[in-house]
Amino acid sequence: MRGRFLFLLLALVSGCPGEPAGPVESGSLVLERVGADTGTLVSGPARARWCSADSMLTILVMGSPWSGAVSMRTPWPPLRLFSVDSLASGVGIGTVAARPTGDSIGAAIVSRSGTIEVDSGLPLTGRLYFESGMDSTLATIAGRFEGIRPDTTVCSLP
Predict the structure, then answer these.
(1) CB neighbour list of residue 105: distance below 8 Å, 6 or more residues apart
(2) CA dist., res. 44 & res. 30, Å (int)
(3) What tens digit of pLDDT does each residue of 51-107 get?
(4) Average pLDDT of 9-14?
(5) Which of 26, 42, 78, 158 is a plausible cystine mate for 31, CB 3.0–4.6 Å?
């Protein structure tokens, strides 16, 4: 199950051609590398969806040169604080991934530990901070989302 979810999340940010299905853009998502190696990875208009069938809130940006996604397992309205792991395996846990757009072979940056904070009310606004990788490949990422209005009307599971 863990591998299946990670594959689906990475497929969302893989940069496959074609128009993304789902809700219209609403708000924005920014992911930035912090520390010695700084720079913006993802910055752009976001699409968001909350699915009652699996309690998953997902915020997605398809951009250039990177794409990214934040997923949080939560009831609706969403919780305000999430721990971050490589898999949103239970309520109150989130995961984040980013990868170069159009690169279906290269490695993605996938969260390992951190936090996501969501402010109360709509539209959704929040901050996130996570680490990815291990030891010499450690990357620290900070981000924010704002103006997010998730589509809660359509939900389908594979």
Answers:
(1) none
(2) 7
(3) 988 899 999 998 878 899 999 999 999 999 999 999 899 999 999 999 888 777 777
(4) 41
(5) 42
Contact criterion met (CB below 8 Å) for 44 and 145: no
Total structural domains within the chain: 1
The tokens describing 39, both together, are 């720079």
Range of the domain at 35: 2-11+25-148
Identify whether 90 is part of a domain.
Answer: yes
Tokens coding 147: 């103006």
Q: How far apart are CA 55 and CA 90, in angstroms?
A: 9
In a domain, 16, yes or no: no
Give dist(CA 23, CA 117) in Å, integer. 23
State the DSSP code for 2: H
